[in-house]
Amino acid sequence: MCGGRGTRLDAETEKPLFRVGGVPMVDRVVGALRDSSVEGIVAATSPNAPDTRSHLDVPCIETPGEGYVTDLDAALADDRLSRPVLTVAADLPLLDGEMVDRVLGEHDGGSLTVLVPASLKRRLGVSDDTTFEEGGRTVAPTGVNVVGDGPDDAWLTRDRRVAVNVNRLADARVAAQWL
User: Fold this and answer.
1) For 109-144, how does the pLDDT look when each residue is reduced to its tens digit (9 = 90+)?
2) Which of 1, 53, 105, 117 is the most exposed place for a label (fewest CB within 10 A)?
């Protein structure tokens, strides 16, 4: 998923192309996927990120650029994808192939949402704009999910590789420290 505007990042480049540790975030995510057991990579881009689409060396699905859920629905409607589908936001510069494979290992049919405790995000010093209650604790979505048919499940992890997503410049500084 790499078609967002990234307005909170306040950068001069498209969010997926924002460099953390000298490397565009989207390249780090594509590298993590290549280092994992996923069978194929398709990027969901939008009119908000034309340079990202040109930059990528993987097939792209054009989405409307009207928000994560709308773009995800548009991507899932594409004939090139069949469920279950691993979805990964382009703003996870710490993601690696091992973590991707851990997520896939946690998937047991249906859909899987990967969550982290909101307290972990605060402890790491990264933004936690979206939180909700799950199982009696405040959690934050990570931007990594498996979308399938059947019941929804959630996996709570305390792994910084999915807890650090870059929405602001301060988040990018934290991510760079952990690289």
Assistant:
1) 899 999 999 999 999 999 998 999 988 999 999 999
2) 105
* Structure tokens belonging to residue 108: 């047991």
Token pair 């399938």 is found at 148
**What is the C-alpha separation between 32 and 129, in angstroms, rounded?**
25
Q: Which amino acid is at 107?
A: H
- Cβ atoms of 106 and 156 within 8 Å: the answer is no
pTM over 0.70: yes
CB contact at 8 A, 167 and 9: yes
8 Å CB contact between 143 and 91: yes
Q: Roughly what angle, to the nearest 10 degrees, separates helices 97-106 and 25-34?
A: 60
Amino acid at 99: M
What end-to-end distance do the CA atoms of the chain give, in Å? 22
Pair of tokens at residue 105: 């290992």
